[in-house]
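Please, structure for the following, as C-alpha cells.
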Amino acid sequence: MKKVHVVSHTHWDREWYFTIEDSNILLGENFAKILSTLENIPEYNSYTLDAQSSLIEEYLKIKPENYERVKNVISNKKLFVGPWYTQTDTLLVNKESLIRNLFYGTTIAKKFDHSLNVGYLPDTFGQNAYLPSIFKNFGIDYSVLKRGIFLKDLKNNDNFTWISPDGKSIPSNYMSLGYGSGELLNSDETYVKEKLLPILNSLNNNNIDNDNILLFVGGDQTLINSILVDELAKINSLQDKFNLETSSLEKFMEEATSQDNFERKIYGELRDTGNQRVHRTIGSMRYDIKKLNSRIENKILNILEPLYSIGKSFGVDYPQTWLDFIWKNLFDAHAHDSMGCCNSDDTNREVKNRLIKSERIVDGLINLIKKRVIKSISKTIGKENIFVLFNTNIKENNEFNKGVLFTKSKYFSIEDLSGKKVTFEKNSQKYISGGKKIILTENGNIEEEMPGYYRTEITLKTAVHSMGWKTFVINDIEKDDILTKEDKDNTIKNENLKLIVNSDSIDIFFKEIELKDCIYFENCADFGDSYDFSPLENDTPFIIKNFEIVSREIKENLEKIEVLTKVTLPKNLDNRIAKINDVEFEIITVFELRKGEKYIRIKHNILNNIEDHRVRCVFKTPFTQLNNSYSDSGFSLIEHKTDIEEMKTWREDNYVEAPVPIYNMENIALVKKNNLVMGTIVEGLKEYEILDNSHLALTLFRSVGLLGRDNLLWRPNRASGINNTTVYTPDAQIQGKLEFEYALYFDNILRDSEIFKNVEKYLKALTYYQNQELDSLDERLDRFNIPLLERNLLPEYSLFSIDNSNIFMSMCKTNGEDIVIRLFNPENTEEKVKILSENISSITETNLGEIEEKEIEKIVIEPKGYITLKLKLKKEENERQNSSI
C-alpha cells in the first residue's frame, strides 16, 4: 500500500488582480482559523504557510498579542514558514536578491525556532539554475517545486536530483499535478471514487520507484481544512490501495529519500512547458517596472552597501534598519506575480510606487555618506572645491566614468592633489540662474539676485583604487582646450569598433569583422496578455531600417552619433488586422563609442503611441547556424538551445504552452563562435531570442491591455490567472516616453571571465560627489544640515583589493562589526584569489546564512562557484583614519 503524505497548505499570492492590502486583510482572517485548528486538534500536525516568513510579520502587525501563540505552533513544527521571505520570481531578479530573500526568510523563521527545511517553489514561472546550490548553502536539504520540467525527462518518477552549474545538487520532488491536487478533498464516496482515486493513481504512476506520494490539500488563499483528519480516516475506510496521513513537506522528503536514491538527474535552469505553464515571454511585460527594479538592485549591491561597508572602517554607522526596510519593500515587489507584472493596474501601480520609494531612500543614504566623507576630506586638506570619485568594486577603476560638476565659470579644470590635470570630456553643459535670496533687514525682507552657475555633465578617465576613493580639485579657468566637432558625417569609431550609419542600414566593423546591415528594429502585433506575448495570426512584422542622422559629436576620447528612425504603424489591433497604418512612430537612437571600450553604448528614446505591439532591436551576427546562445544567470553563463526540438510537436504532444526559444538574462545575452563574442549588456531588459540561427533579437518592450486572454497561438485553451472575467489593464500599454540603455558588445577573447569583466565595466560600481554650494537640488538632501564626521579622512583611500581579475564580487555588506563579501568564479576551472589589505585581521568562510564555518588563509573558488567571506577589521584602522595627512 502506497503512503500518501497529505500536506495541508495555502498558496499565498502577496498581490495579483487584488492588492497587497486585500491580501493582508484576508490573511488576518485566515490566520485566526489556522491557529485555532492547530492548537485544538492535536492530530492536525502540519500546515504549510507557503514558505513565506513575510506572512508572519504581516499577521503580527495586525495581532501582535498573538506572538507567543504563533511561536508555539512554529517551534512545535505544526506551522511551517520560511525559508523564503516572499515567493520570488527567480528568473527576473538579481541573484543576490534571491539570496537575500532567503536570508531574511530563514532568519525570521528561526527566531520562531524553525525554518522549513525545503526549498519550496509552488508557483514560480521557471526556476533559476543556481537554486540547488543556494538552497544547499543555506543548509536546506530538499526542494519541492512546480513548473519547468518536461515529464518525459522524469521517466515516470516525480523524484529527482537537481544539479546547479557549480555541481551542487539537492534531492527534489516535482509537483506534477501542482499544489491543488487535493484542494477539494472530502470523504464523499462519489468524490473519492471519481475524483480522488484517479488523482492518486496518476501520482502513483509518476512515483514508480517510491512508496511515498505527495498530495496537497489547499490552494490560492484557501482556508485551512479543519476537518481534514476526520476526512482522511473516512477516505482510508473507503479504499485499500492508499493510506492517507497528515504530513509535512519535510517528512515526505525524509521518507522518500530514505527509500529512493533519486537517480534521475535534472540540470540547471528549469523552463520547460510540458504540463505546467512557465510564461516564457513574461520577461518583457512592463519593462518600466523591471528596469526600475534592476536599477535599484544595482544601486544597493554595487554602491550603497559597499560604500557603507567602507564607511564601517572609519566609524560610519551602517544603516541596517533602513536596509531591512528597503530589502523587504523589494521582496514584496519581487514576489511571484508582482515582478512578473501580470497584475491589475492597481497592483502594478503599487509595485512601481514601492520601487520608487525604495530608490529615494537608497539615493538619500548614498547622498549622506558621500557628503560626510567629502566634508571630512575637505577639512583634512584645507580645500573647498573638491570632487571625489568613489570606487565600490574590488578592482581598481581606470575607465571613463561619468559625473556632474557645478562651477561658476563655463570653463574649468580637474586636477589631482599633486596638480596633475585629469583628462575629461564635457558631455553637456547648461547655465542655471542663481535665483533670488531673501535677506532680512531692519526694513523687512528684500530680494537679492544670486549669480548664476553652470551644470556640466562630464566623462573623465582616471585611476581610483578598489573599495575606496580619490579626491580631485576643481579650478575655474578663463578658457579650456576641450574641442568638440559637430557635423552630420556618418561614422564614429574607436580603436576597436567603427559604426557607419547609412540611410537604410547600419554597418559595424570590429577589427577584421565586417557586419553590413547589422541593426534594424522589428515591430509586430501582440495579441497576448500580461503573462505572454502572442503573435497575431497572419500578421506580418514591420522590419524598420531607415536612419536619418540628427547630429554627430567627435571628441578626443568619445564619439557619438544621434539617429532618427520613423515609421507609420497601425494604432491598435483593429487597424493592424485591417492593414491600416495611421500613426507615425519615432525612435531616437544615440550610438556612443568611448576610447578603449569593446562595446557600442546604445540609447533609445521612444514615444510609444501604439497599442498592443512589441518592439525589438535586432542585431545581425557574423555567424550562421547558431545552435546555442548564452546568458548570465546566477554566477556564470547559462547555455541555451537556439532550436528546441519540442517546438515541432508541442501541439500534438499536448504541451500547455509552446516551448519557444525566448530566454531571460540578468545582464548579458550573447553568442560566441570562431573566436568571436557578440552580445548585449543590459540593465533591466530581460528577454532575447536568436532568429534564423544568425540574428540576436533584444526585446525592448511590449504593450498589451489585458490581464488574461484565452487561446493564444503559443498558449492554447484558458487564460492564465483570472479566466472567468476580463480584466483590462490600460496602464500596461505603457504609452508615453520610454528610454532604453544597453551596450552591443564584441570581443575576440572567449573566456567567460573576460565577458564578465566587460559587464562589470559597463554597470560601474562607481559614484561621485562634489563639495559645492552652487546647487542644492541635484542630490535632494544637499540643502539640509546633517551631522558630520568628527574625524579627518585621507583624500585617497582603499580598504582592500584582490589579486585575481578573473574573480568578481557580487555583494559587500556589513554584519555586526564585520564586513561580508561574496566572490564568484564564472570560469570552468578552479581559481585562487588573495584579499590584499592592511586593514583586515582575519578571514572566515561562512555559508549563505552568514554562519561562520572556518577561518581560512587560502581562498579557492570552484568552477562556476562562489564563496562567502567574513572580513574582520583591525581595531587600529579607525584610529589610523582619525589622523590627518
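The radius of gyration is 29 Å. The first helix runs from residue 20 to 40.
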